[in-house]
Specification:
Structural class: alpha/beta
Radius of gyration: 25 Å
Number of helices: 13
Largest sheet: 8 strands, mixed
CATH architecture of the largest domain: 3-Layer(aba) Sandwich
Strand order of the largest sheet: 7-8-10-9-13-17-14-15
CATH topology of the largest domain: Aminopeptidase
Strand content: 15-25%
CATH superfamily of the largest domain: Zn peptidases
Distance between the termini: 33 Å
Number of domains: 2
Shape: elongated
Amino acid sequence: MNIKINYKKQVFDKNNENPILFVDENFNISSLKNSISKSDYFYIFDLLKNRDPKKKIVTFDINSKRKIILVSLKKNLTNSEVENLGADCYKIIKELKKSNFFINSDTATKKLKNFVGHFLHGIKLKSYLFEKYKSKKTNKNIVLNIFGKNIPTINDQTKFNAIEEGTFYARDLVSEPGNVLHPDEYAKRINSLKKFGLKINIYDEKKLKKLGMNTLLGVGQGSIRGSYLVTIEWNGLKNKSRPLAFVGKGVCFDTGGISLKPAKFMEDMTYDMAGSAVVVGLMKNLALRKAKINAVGVVGLVENMPGSNAQRPGDIVKSYSGKTVEILNTDAEGRLVLADAITYTEKKFKPKFIVDLATLTGAIIVSLGSEYAGLFSNDDKLSKQLIDAGKNVEEKVWRMPLNKNYDKLINSKNADMQNINYVGGAGSTTAAQFLQRFILNKTPWAHLDIAGMAFSKYGGALNSGGATGYGVRLLNKLIEDNYE
């Protein structure tokens, strides 16, 4: 679905076809006398007497060619609630045979800054479809013409567009099938983002071996595809202040390796690279909106296959940090990729903080379902910032425990640690406890387990099912509110 937005300087015409107008929560239309004709006013006034009180958006056919859409606004709306209203409005207009709509921004509330911007943001986020491989595509184009004074500034339009582009890019990456977006192709796509002003370095297997990134390389050694670590730098400040760092798990397809997964639902493992997609989408967003910060994204790209050279249960590998890991289950691979990526990020870039994202454990879905991502952190300040940012954009996180008492569950008799807890229980916490061991210099760190949030079979408030892009808006808000 293609959404085109036109901002008009002229006065709203009462006879515009298919107007979208805003009213209060009681559907009092007295404020619309300058937006609709007298005859339309009394016609709608009469019809509203029989409206469904549960509906926040109602539509009226004025004639065969013209429809009026009224959106009711409760008092003290939040930005997220406005975006959800926009998404709900999109669900209505996409089903109509109309393609041209006219919004009078002067009827919107002026109590909330950027009301119209957030409303349109919700429409656009909800409109995303991934139809690249369908022979019959949804070809409908929707044009939204915005009138009045209550419209976003050029700067705000740029910010909203950048967030949408970053989120859609993340969704595109997650939606690609594994035979298309394997690590070799993924590295090329990231490299193409140089045109936006990002500095990109790609470390192939030869370079990774030289660096000693054996936990990452071990995961991908059963695949005919390459394994990579890619760094993406955005320098939005002229000074050389320490960057904010974001690390993503990029397992392009996860069979489980020798510890093979069950066949049922294995096709969903194309989205096991969603953590990396969030990082890539975020970095694209920062570049597009010329964010005034220094930031680095680091992603480990591998394919976990049960080939003749695949890693075996019982293998012991030495990580980039120098710590050794006994591989008890090759399906606990994401933490191995992140281990090397986290230590390298800390050593190379000396960041202010590190946030890593990964579809890491099924256990987090058991704990939190598809409502919250699991947050594990060594830093209370960073945790609070993430929780607050999540509430603001409705990409929520819930803090889970880390404690040294969990260490005994991942200590190994044969190496410094083992990659799973064989005793059972606390699967998400022990995975996070494992990752924490690769923070060597007490850098503030947070791990987001997004296994329940990256993909939605039934759709959410701002997505229509499939890849959600969860995390791009969350991390952008974290940066915007605390570091710009």
